[in-house]
Sequence to fold (1480 residues):
Amino acid sequence: MASTFGEKLRISVFGESHGNGIGALIEGLPAGETIDFEQLMRFMERRQGGRNALSTARKEPDIPEFVSGIFDNHTTGFPVCIRIANTNTRSGDYNNLAMKPRPSHADFSAYMKWHGAADMRGGGHFSGRLTAPLCAAGGIAKQILERRGIFAGAHLSSVGTVQDVPFPMLPDAAMLAEIAAKDFPVISDEKGAGMQAEILAAREASDSVGGSIECAVTGLPAGLGDPMFDGIENRLSRALFGIPAVKGIEFGDGFSLSEMRGSQANDPFSSENGKIITKSNRNGGILGGISTGMPIRFRVAIKPTPSIAQPQETVSLPQGEHTTIEIKGRHDPCIAQRAVPVVEAVTALVVLDLILSDSEPNYNNIAKEK
Amino acid sequence: MASTFGEKLRISVFGESHGNGIGALIEGLPAGETIDFEQLMRFMERRQGGRNALSTARKEPDIPEFVSGIFDNHTTGFPVCIRIANTNTRSGDYNNLAMKPRPSHADFSAYMKWHGAADMRGGGHFSGRLTAPLCAAGGIAKQILERRGIFAGAHLSSVGTVQDVPFPMLPDAAMLAEIAAKDFPVISDEKGAGMQAEILAAREASDSVGGSIECAVTGLPAGLGDPMFDGIENRLSRALFGIPAVKGIEFGDGFSLSEMRGSQANDPFSSENGKIITKSNRNGGILGGISTGMPIRFRVAIKPTPSIAQPQETVSLPQGEHTTIEIKGRHDPCIAQRAVPVVEAVTALVVLDLILSDSEPNYNNIAKEK
Amino acid sequence: MASTFGEKLRISVFGESHGNGIGALIEGLPAGETIDFEQLMRFMERRQGGRNALSTARKEPDIPEFVSGIFDNHTTGFPVCIRIANTNTRSGDYNNLAMKPRPSHADFSAYMKWHGAADMRGGGHFSGRLTAPLCAAGGIAKQILERRGIFAGAHLSSVGTVQDVPFPMLPDAAMLAEIAAKDFPVISDEKGAGMQAEILAAREASDSVGGSIECAVTGLPAGLGDPMFDGIENRLSRALFGIPAVKGIEFGDGFSLSEMRGSQANDPFSSENGKIITKSNRNGGILGGISTGMPIRFRVAIKPTPSIAQPQETVSLPQGEHTTIEIKGRHDPCIAQRAVPVVEAVTALVVLDLILSDSEPNYNNIAKEK
Amino acid sequence: MASTFGEKLRISVFGESHGNGIGALIEGLPAGETIDFEQLMRFMERRQGGRNALSTARKEPDIPEFVSGIFDNHTTGFPVCIRIANTNTRSGDYNNLAMKPRPSHADFSAYMKWHGAADMRGGGHFSGRLTAPLCAAGGIAKQILERRGIFAGAHLSSVGTVQDVPFPMLPDAAMLAEIAAKDFPVISDEKGAGMQAEILAAREASDSVGGSIECAVTGLPAGLGDPMFDGIENRLSRALFGIPAVKGIEFGDGFSLSEMRGSQANDPFSSENGKIITKSNRNGGILGGISTGMPIRFRVAIKPTPSIAQPQETVSLPQGEHTTIEIKGRHDPCIAQRAVPVVEAVTALVVLDLILSDSEPNYNNIAKEK
Fold:
């Protein structure tokens, strides 16, 4: 079922870029969880466009309406429907695109799937705008997790070839909070300045640029997850590839592990203050799909925004005559920095689902913070 | 549900390394599909251990028994249960490991999840042996797909730092067949020789080494897949991380895309003999989660076999006293080359499920080869 | 996942009686299906309250807003979100009930499940009001099915001990259309008059009364459905028990079959105009969970509205002191007649899902009416 | 997915009557649960044929082989595969039936679904023989539940028009145990004698006869289950219609409720020894899909065995020429009495799944018996 993920906590995203609205349905949220709406809005603002020269000019308030499932600022156990109105659509910008698929967008593959019936104005259901309700849902999950000492945080680990310093093998919650508070979510502000220069240079060139995001989850107890196809890697990757433009994911040292010897790659077990730990964390806190109690750590690759102002070769549908396209409208020269909170949101949703889905060392056994 | 994946074609894997047997249950296979058992056995032999100095000494015939769902050499539409007996288990080898978790194995995380109840002899349900029924199931899927002109094939793209030449952007079925026929599944036999030297050197050093596998699917029509969370990347990644030791996946140019500009990364549309194509294929045949009609192309990272004969630091359970472990028993110094057909098998299962799950341009519309 | 059903066509219902709104999310609707909104409103009006002395005084326009998934009066293939505002809530009526569970309502069991966190005003998520979005979704499914010659229709088969004449073994679409056009959906208007008298008598006595609904589906081809746990009976029963107050279901001759001999109960095969038929239809068009091509026929039992104005024994929560309750507010003395279109709606959704889920004699093979 | 049910505890049934074997895969069983194999065999013997004149002459030992998931007599947390060999198949008996569908069997509908590819010898995957692995799986679930004070038990409530005395509104575990120990599972042995006479009379007349089964679950705490489509009624009905020949189900007073007034049907709340109870239990322990803490109580209708020795009208496939059929082979004149433990087994599986699926008042909170 395309736009849905999760086992006990199910998130379904709906809406199109230029339709009446967008939103999310969250089923399976535990009852009685308080929601701090101010904190939620601050989280959603992190993905908001239009704040500076790095982002699209489209500004929408993106105020979520809670249609159901919340009463007196707490969850009720019933499905939570979140609806965000589309208020600032200018479909005219896209009219000329309808029958000329934009390179590296979903226009052509969607046309082939739905034979032209889909509403693809502004990218339709594939638009990055759909990540707003994902952030609303994920922001709620983050609050529930944080009350239990579990934090999901990310930083922009590269833009083009400019790289931020990576997370240490064992990032902590304080580091994640510090990054989240920044306007430009990097560990090294100096590297961040280089990345911003890269983005502006791409814009200057009527071009765009890709990037990557590194994410960590701290505080997750050992023993959560499942073998084979429902391990933490399986669950996270399945959900994270739902974020537009994600084209790769690696856990722990990921592709670097493939170049190592076992004696380098293995994380020795040790113990510290009565808790069993690993001395290194090259496996990213996951063995056999199950948490080790060390921080989860992974990195996703984000391709360059496909919409660029340069003329590009394409064809006209349905016959396939050769033509060119110049994409007007409002587009980010790099979406990676705006995707940082989206990666956090999706991660928080997957982790909360993981806990709720675990019948054994379950949700209630993770003590709620007083 | 941990050991199960698929939407309309559901594969469930069961068994433990040192229990009575292992197997797979396949639900949703279309009825009336002929199975060529000889071809299936040849495919399964590609992952078989014990053939040369590169692999474990454990030799098992791995003859699948078809308990149900097959009649007169064809599928009946009923669930297919495949059972493979465990005939060559020597649990004694592992007895000393029970309470000393092996670094980078699932021993510790599984212990924390099931509080010691799991049968972890020989890796239990996490053992690489469980990929045998996956290959049996995937081998059937491959036959069904091939009859419809769809081919999934892979090569060992690296061992340690030695790299095979990569697939071209548009690999074809003939190339995939040629690799599949080789003893050592690489494109460049010269590079292959280097990889084999790397594996033997690792064994010599009582060590192991990682690798990576590149896979392609040809012949898939455009318009298959779903937006957001059930796209082809989501489905493949979720299933492929179920193969032991996979720690990363990238589609098309993957992480390299994150370093590119849009003008480099975008695949221009064109047409050729009346068919709309992309001139390059940096997106790996997938846009918005949906097939473009170009070959699917992706790469997975395989970590080094965690079992190595060198002494390693660990702790004793449950108290966590520091100790060391030397892993005896039969282990491959590199599992990447044996994982090549496993990646093909899982890919074939995901692709067949994708076709069966698509209600619109569906299974029956893909003409069966006469 | 509580408030969701369906395999390829997934319907999720959200909202509470006295919250901001109610609605449904429909995922998996085929693309390119025209929606006749006037026809949809007429269908929804059939369940509407407040039309006569038989129903609750609460009148709400129940105009569905289509948030997503519909463009230019046709489905796009993207998720359809329907939202209905709650405009006429008078929570004051229910305030005194919060801690006194109403007999035979979900108040107590919900309290035990969510420890008081659920918003149970007016029945909360359990309210009959939630059947409005079900009818909106089902009304769309009915239009899609009818274009393919498949009709789902129901009549009120009993109120208290007054019974309508039953469907013949082979009801046809014309009969279903005729009933649907009536204000009081019965076959025999004379029996209908008796039922209405029964309802008014119950109201007069500050009481309520139960009833039953018989439903049929015509035009479904043979060979749809699945063995064992996803047969037509399994799918329909699972969904229909989601309608508040349904306490029983029987297919074909149902419980009467349990009193018969095989020679009486078996439906002999025959053929007519080149089509294989059964001469009788005691099995209700379903054998082994799979359609026979004869009309589907089943009956559901609806318990009396639990809300009655008479004083009833109950306890106060959480301590359990004995007390009594008198339920004020607006309640139907019989909900069975309003549930008739709801049964049709749920049935249409299940049947459309059944067709979409069938990979073999599938959706596209059922010719679309010109 | 046809032959699978369950959310956290998933049961998949495989096999055909005359194939190599039959079995079940159970995923999600909690780890560390002891299995008493003798007790399990005694439970399975309750559905065994060939014990007396009431049953089919086919005798098979039906010894389950535990292929996986069990170690040292306890569950490991890994999938449990159970396999039962088919040792006593005489397909010759059925050869003449292949192209003449037996009235009220799945032969015709299965033929239409799979176009003749299905292996329908002896009923194939639809055979009552498939209930043997269901009993093996359910017998394990019963042991786990009983250790937690939860008992599922059933009796044969009618055969033809002869009725057993019904369960009281509040049956207890002792009563269930007493019935389970009987050769003929009824409350009143006198009524049981009448039922047996009815069965023998049907056999004498080369005919068969239907029946009904009433089932109860005691010890289930209040607050388990879900609203709308995953309530206890939804879950039980979906699974129970998977038992061959079940054509109806009613919960609590079921269809009788539809004839009552609310003042008769409502169950008043009260309290007893500090526990909130209902004084009557006409709703069968379920309100709003959620348990009330009172015993679950429901009844299923079983149609007469469709296989009868009398000549019956049918057609020949695929053309539909009129012909007749006389069904030889081994058949029970009534399957209702053998279905009693099957109903218990399926019920136990659904109830255990219900507990495991509940994230809130969950599995671990139900104290394990010391």
Remarks:
- Residues 307 and 327 of chain C are 6 Å apart (CA to CA).
- The two ends of chain C are 38 Å apart (CA to CA).
